[in-house]
C-alpha cells in the first residue's frame, strides 16, 4: 500500500505573532507540493473554482499549487460517485496540482446553523437537509474525498448566540473532536484541523482551545471557528489576540469568512496563516475589479506628483458596470500581469457585463483572484524581509476608507 | 451593364457600381484538393489563413459563450462570427470605431465575419416592417423605432471591421411560399448594389453576397445569375435551416453549389449539425456557422462521433471516461463524464467546459473532412462517419440521397 500523504508546516520567519510559513504535502519524505503562508484559499462550487476551467486556473498561478476550499456539503452530494471512483477528489476534480481543504463552513459568508445532536449534524444538500454522523463524515472525507486538509466535524454558530448555546456547542465540539481523532487512522492525523468554538464567550473559547491543544499530537492545525458571524473587527481582534498566543506556534491557523484587505492584515498581525473566504468572487459578482494598491515599494514613494493614473489606481475597486468605461481601452490595472489585464480592456468587460455574457465573470474572476493572491504574496514578502508592520501601516494610510 | 478590363481583372458596372470594387481584394481562395464537388482549400483573409471546409463558432455579442479569445485560438478556430444586429445595439458603431473594431475589442487575432443583421428580420418579424428602404423595427432594448438599411448595415459592419461582411438581404422564412419569396429575392439583388456603394473599407473587408429565393429552384437561379454577374469574393447560401424539410434543404444546397463559381468560397449560413456538415461539405460548401454547439452545451449536451451525450442523464453518474476518449481537448484530457454530469446544465463551469469540447468537436470534424479530401479518402470517411452516427443503419434518407447525388454511396456492409 502506498503511504498516505502527510501535511507538514514549517515557519520561515516570525516576528511577534506574525509568521510566514510553508504548508507542504509530503509523501514518503518527498515533498509533492506546497503553498506558502499567509495565503488565501480559492472558493469552489461543486468542487470547481468558480468560472475557472483547468487551463485558466493553472494560468492564473503560473502552474504553482493553490489552496482551494472544498465545501463538504457540495462534495457530500456526490460522495457515492467518489466512492466508486476510488481515487479521491484531486483526480476526480482534475485538481491534482492543488492543495484541497475540505471544510464544513461555507466560506461564502455565514449561515446560521442547523440543528445538531451529540451524534450528528445536518448538511444542506440540493435535495434538502441530511443527517451526517461523525463516523460518516470521517469515512467519506478520508476514504472518498481524500483532501489534503480536513476540518474537524464541527458547526459554526453566530457571534451573538446565548451563552447556553455556546456552552452546549463547545461541549459537543470537544466530544466530536475526540470521536473523530479516535475514528481517524493515525496516518491521517496530520491533515486534521481542530476547530475552536465558543462564539463571543472568552472562557468558552479558551476551554475549546485547551481541548484542541490537548490533542495537538493528533492534529495538523487549528481552525478559528464561528468568526465573520456578526462580530465587529474590534471584537474579533480582541478575542483573537487572546487566543492565538495560546496556540502552539508549529501548527497553521485557518480562519473562514474574513476577507477585506484591512481585516486580513490585522489578522496576519495576530498570527493567522490561512484565510478562507469568498472576497474576490463577491467582487466579481458585483461587477467589481480589485484595484487596490498593495506593492510595498510603490506605497513608499507615492507622496508627490500623483498623476491621473495613480489617483485612479489607489481606488480600492472599480465597478465595471459604470458607463464611463464604455470606450476605456486600458486594462483593469495598468501594471497587472494577469491574463485579463494583459489581454483585455475595461471597455470589453463593461460590454460583456452589459450584455450579460458569462465571459465577464470569467475575466473578472481571473483578475480579482490574481490581484488578491498577489496581495498575499506581498504580505509574505514583507514578513520575510521583517517589514510587515511598516507594510501594514503604509497600506492602511494609503487605502481609502470604504 | 458594361465591361472593361484593368490588368487581369475584369470590371463590370452595375447601377453605377464597379465590380469588383477594387482590383486587389483582401481575400485569396485556393483549392488544394477536390473529391467530386467537395473541396479542401486555403482561404486567406486579412487576419488569418483559414483551412476549409471550416466551421465558424458564433460569438454573437463579441464572445463565444464563456470562452476567452485565447481559448478560441487554443481550439484552433479560424473565423469567429459576430452579429451586426447585436453589436450594432451594444456597444454600437460609435464605440466600435473608438475601440478600433471588433478584433481589438475582443482581442481575437484571427479572422472574423459579421452577418448583415438581416436574419433578425425573420426572428423579429412580428416587430419588423420591410420596405424598399430597409427593415424598420422596434428596438427590443428601448422600444425605439430603428431602420436597418443596406447603408446602415454596411456602416455598422465597417465599424466592426470583420474580414468578411455579409450584404443585407431580404430574408424570408424558408417555409414562406408565394410572391413574397420572389419579392425578397429581387429586393436582395437591388440591395446588393447599395451595399457595395456604401462599403467604405474595400481594402480590408470583403463583402459576401447571399443567395436567396426560398425553396424555389427558379428563383434561386435568377438570384444566382444576378449575383454571379457581379463577381463577388464569396457567396453565401441563405434562407435555409429555418424549418424546411431536409429533402428540400439539400436540393437547394446542391443546386447552389453546382452553379456558384468554382473558384470562390461558399458559405452555408446557420448550419452546424454534424450530419449536415458532412453532407454539405460533400455538396461543395466551404464555410458553416451555427450556435448549436455552444447552445446545446449550456443545456448539458456534448457532441461525440456517435452523436451526442446528454450529460445530465443519470447514465453518466458513474462514468469515469472522458466525453470522447479519442478527443485530445483540454476538457477530455482532464474531466470525466461523471464530473461533468454534476455541473452540466447547472453551474456556469459546466457550460464553459462542454462548450469548449463542442467547439473542439466541430473543429476536428472539419479538419478530418478536409484531410479525407486531401488524402483522397473522402467517401470512406463519410461512410465511417455515418456508421458511427447511425450504427442501427438508420441514417436519414435525405442524407443518403444527397450523398448519392454526388456519387457517394453509403454501404453499411463494407
UniProtKB/TrEMBL annotation, chain A:
One of its GO terms (biological process) is tRNA modification. Heterodimer of a catalytic subunit and an accessory subunit. SUPFAM superfamilies: tRNA-guanine transglycosylase (SSF51713). HAMAP family: QTRT2. It is found in: Cytoplasm. Non-catalytic subunit of the queuine tRNA-ribosyltransferase (TGT) that catalyzes the base-exchange of a guanine (G) residue with queuine (Q) at position 34 (anticodon wobble position) in tRNAs with GU(N) anticodons (tRNA-Asp, -Asn, -His and -Tyr), resulting in the hypermodified nucleoside queuosine (7-(((4,5-cis-dihydroxy-2-cyclopenten-1-yl)amino)methyl)-7-deazaguanosine). This is Queuine tRNA-ribosyltransferase accessory subunit 2. Its cofactor is Zn(2+). Zn(2+) binds at residues 336, 338, 341, 367. It comes from the Eukaryota. Pfam families: TGT. GO terms for molecular function: metal ion binding; tRNA-guanosine(34) queuine transglycosylase activity. Belongs to the queuine tRNA-ribosyltransferase family. QTRT2 subfamily. InterPro entries: QTRTD1 (IPR028592), Queuine_tRNA-ribosyltrfase (IPR050852), TGT-like_sf (IPR036511), tRNA_ribo_trans-like (IPR002616). Keywords: Cytoplasm, Metal-binding, tRNA processing, Zinc. GO terms for cellular component: cytoplasm. Binds 1 zinc ion per subunit. Residues 19-399 form the tRNA-guanine(15) transglycosylase-like domain.
Automatic annotation (TrEMBL), chain B:
Its main location: cytoplasm. Substrate binds at residues 115-119, 169, 212, 239. Keywords: Cytoplasm, Glycosyltransferase, Metal-binding, Transferase, tRNA processing, Zinc. Residues 37-390 form the tRNA-guanine(15) transglycosylase-like domain. It catalyses: guanosine(34) in tRNA + queuine = queuosine(34) in tRNA + guanine. Its cofactor is Zn(2+). One of its GO terms (biological process) is tRNA modification. Zn(2+) binds at residues 327, 329, 332, 357. One of its GO terms (molecular function) is metal ion binding. The active site is at residues 115, 289. Residues 270-276 are annotated as: RNA binding. It is found in: Cytoplasm. Pfam families: TGT. It comes from the Eukaryota. GO terms for cellular component: cytosol. Coiled coil: none annotated. Signal peptide: none annotated. Its EC number is 2.4.2.64. Heterodimer of a catalytic subunit and an accessory subunit. Belongs to the queuine tRNA-ribosyltransferase family. Catalytic subunit of the queuine tRNA-ribosyltransferase (TGT) that catalyzes the base-exchange of a guanine (G) residue with queuine (Q) at position 34 (anticodon wobble position) in tRNAs with GU(N) anticodons (tRNA-Asp, -Asn, -His and -Tyr), resulting in the hypermodified nucleoside queuosine (7-(((4,5-cis-dihydroxy-2-cyclopenten-1-yl)amino)methyl)-7-deazaguanosine). Catalysis occurs through a double-displacement mechanism. The nucleophile active site attacks the C1' of nucleotide 34 to detach the guanine base from the RNA, forming a covalent enzyme-RNA intermediate. This is Queuine tRNA-ribosyltransferase catalytic subunit 1. It comes from Tieghemostelium lacteum (Slime mold). The lineage of its organism: Eukaryota, Amoebozoa, Evosea, Eumycetozoa, Dictyostelia.
Amino acid at each position: 500500500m502506498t503511504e498516505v500523504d502527510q501535511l507538514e508546516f514549517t515557519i520561515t520567519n516570525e516576528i511577534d505573532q506574525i509568521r510566514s510559513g510553508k504548508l507542504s504535502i509530503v509523501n514518503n519524505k518527498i515533498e509533492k507540493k506546497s503553498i506558502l503562508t499567509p495565503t488565501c484559499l480559492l472558493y469552489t462550487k461543486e468542487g470547481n473554482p468558480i468560472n475557472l476551467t483547468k487551463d485558466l486556473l493553472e494560468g492564473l498561478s503560473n502552474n504553482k499549487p493553490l489552496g482551494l476550499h472544498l465545501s463538504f456539503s457540495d462534495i457530500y452530494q456526490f460522495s457515492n460517485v467518489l466512492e466508486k471512483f476510488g481515487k479521491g477528489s484531486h483526480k476526480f476534480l482534475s485538481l491534482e496540482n492543488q492543495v484541497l481543504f475540505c471544510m464544513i463552513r461555507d466560506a461564502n459568508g455565514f449561515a446560521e446553523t442547523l440543528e445538531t445532536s451529540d451524534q450528528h449534524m445536518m448538511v444542506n444538500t440540493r435535495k434538502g437537509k441530511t443527517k451526517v454522523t461523525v463516523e460518516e463524515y470521517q469515512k467519506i472525507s478520508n476514504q472518498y474525498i481524500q483532501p489534503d486538509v480536513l476540518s474537524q466535524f464541527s458547526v459554526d454558530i453566530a457571534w451573538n448566540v446565548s451563552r447556553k448555546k455556546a456552552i452546549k456547542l463547545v461541549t459537543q465540539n470537544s466530544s466530536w473532536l475526540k470521536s473523530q481523532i479516535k475514528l481517524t487512522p493515525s496516518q491521517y492525523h496530520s491533515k486534521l484541523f481542530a476547530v475552536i468554538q465558543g462564539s463571543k464567550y472568552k472562557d468558552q473559547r479558551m476551554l475549546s482551545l485547551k481541548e484542541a491543544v490537548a490533542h495537538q499530537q493528533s492534529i495538523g492545525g487549528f481552525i478559528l471557528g464561528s468568526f465573520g458571524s456578526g462580530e465587529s473587527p474590534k471584537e474579533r481582534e480582541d478575542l483573537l489576540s487572546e487566543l492565538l498566543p495560546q496556540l502552539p506556534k508549529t501548527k497553521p491557523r485557518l480562519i473562514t469568512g474574513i476577507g477585506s484587505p484591512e481585516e486580513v492584515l490585522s489578522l496576519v498581525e495576530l498570527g493567522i496563516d490561512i484565510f478562507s473566504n469568498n472576497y474576490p468572487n463577491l467582487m466579481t459578482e458585483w461587477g467589481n475589479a480589485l484595484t487596490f494598491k498593495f506593492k510595498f515599494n510603490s506605497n513608499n514613494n507615492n507622496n508627490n506628483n500623483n498623476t491621473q493614473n495613480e489617483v485612479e489606481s489607489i481606488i480600492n475597486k472599480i465597478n465595471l458596470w459604470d458607463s464611463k468605461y464604455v470606450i476605456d481601452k486600458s486594462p483593469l490595472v495598468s501594471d497587472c500581469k494577469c491574463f485579463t489585464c494583459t489581454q483585455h480592456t475595461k471597455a470589453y468587460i463593461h460590454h460583456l457585463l452589459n450584455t450579460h455574457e458569462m465571459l465577464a465573470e470569467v475575466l473578472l474572476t481571473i483578475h480579482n483572484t490574481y490581484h488578491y493572491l498577489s496581495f498575499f504574496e506581498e504580505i509574505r514578502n514583507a514578513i520575510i524581509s521583517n517589514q510587515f508592520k511598516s507594510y501594514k501601516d503604509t497600506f492602511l494610510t494609503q487605502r481609502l476608507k470604504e | 451593364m458594361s465591361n472593361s478590363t484593368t490588368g487581369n481583372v475584369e470590371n463590370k458596372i452595375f447601377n453605377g457600381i464597379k465590380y469588383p470594387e477594387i482590383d486587389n481584394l483582401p481575400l485569396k481562395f485556393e483549392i488544394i484538393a477536390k473529391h467530386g464537388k467537395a473541396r479542401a482549400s486555403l482561404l486567406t483573409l486579412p487576419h488569418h489563413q483559414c483551412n476549409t471546409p471550416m466551421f465558424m463558432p458564433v460569438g454573437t455579442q463579441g464572445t463565444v459563450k464563456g470562452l476567452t479569445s485565447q481559448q478560441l485560438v487554443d481550439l484552433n478556430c479560424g473565423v469567429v462570427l459576430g452579429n451586426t444586429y447585436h453589436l450594432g445595439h451594444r456597444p454600437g458603431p460609435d464605440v466600435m470605431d473608438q475601440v478600433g473594431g471588433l478584433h481589438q475589442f475582443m482581442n481575437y487575432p484571427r479572422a472574423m465575419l459579421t452577418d448583415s443583421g438581416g436574419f433578425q428580420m425573420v426572428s423579429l418579424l412580428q416587430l419588423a416592417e420591410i420596405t424598399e428602404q430597409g427593415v424598420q423595427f422596434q428596438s427590443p432594448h428601448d422600444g425605439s423605432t430603428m431602420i436597418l438599411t443596406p447603408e446602415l448595415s454596411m456602416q455598422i459592419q465597417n465599424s466592426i471591421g470583420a474580414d468578411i461582411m455579409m450584404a443585407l438581404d431580404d430574408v424570408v422564412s424558408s417555409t414562406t411560399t408565394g410572391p413574397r419569396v420572389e419579392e425578397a429575392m429581387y429586393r436582395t439583388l437591388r440591395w446588393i448594389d447599395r451595399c457595395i456603394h456604401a462599403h467604405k473599407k474595400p481594402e480590408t473587408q470583403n463583402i459576401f453576397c447571399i443567395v436567396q429565393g426560398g425553396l424555389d429552384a427558379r428563383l434561386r437561379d435568377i438570384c444566382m445569375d444576378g449575383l454571379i454577374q457581379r463577381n463577388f469574393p464569396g457567396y453565401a447560401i441563405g434562407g435555409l435551416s429555418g424549418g424546411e424539410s431536409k429533402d428540400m434543404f439539400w436540393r437547394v444546397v446542391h443546386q447552389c453549389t453546382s452553379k456558384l463559381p468554382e473558384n470562390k468560397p461558399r458559405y452555408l449560413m446557420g448550419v452546424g449539425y454534424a450530419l449536415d456538415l458532412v453532407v454539405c461539405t460533400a455538396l461543395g460548401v466551404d464555410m458553416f456557422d451555427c450556435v448549436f454547439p455552444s447552445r446545446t452545451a449550456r443545456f448539458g449536451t456534448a457532441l461525440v462521433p456517435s452523436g451526442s451525450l446528454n450529460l445530465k442523464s443519470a447514465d453518466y453518474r458513474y462514468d469515469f471516461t472522458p466525453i470522447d476518449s479519442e478527443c485530445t481537448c483540454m476538457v477530455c484530457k482532464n474531466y470525466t463524464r461523471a464530473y461533468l454530469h454534476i455541473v452540466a446544465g447547472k453551474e456556469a463551469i459546466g457550460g464553459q467546459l462542454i462548450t469548449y469540447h463542442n467547439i473542439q468537436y466541430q473543429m476536428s470534424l472539419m479538419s478530418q473532412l478536409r484531410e479525407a479530401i486531401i488524402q483522397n479518402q473522402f467517401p470512406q470517411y463519410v461512410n465511417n462517419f455515418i456508421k458511427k452516427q447511425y450504427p442501427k443503419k438508420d441514417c436519414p434518407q435525405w442524407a443518403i440521397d444527397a450523398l448519392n447525388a454526388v456519387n457517394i454511396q453509403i454501404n453499411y456492409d463494407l
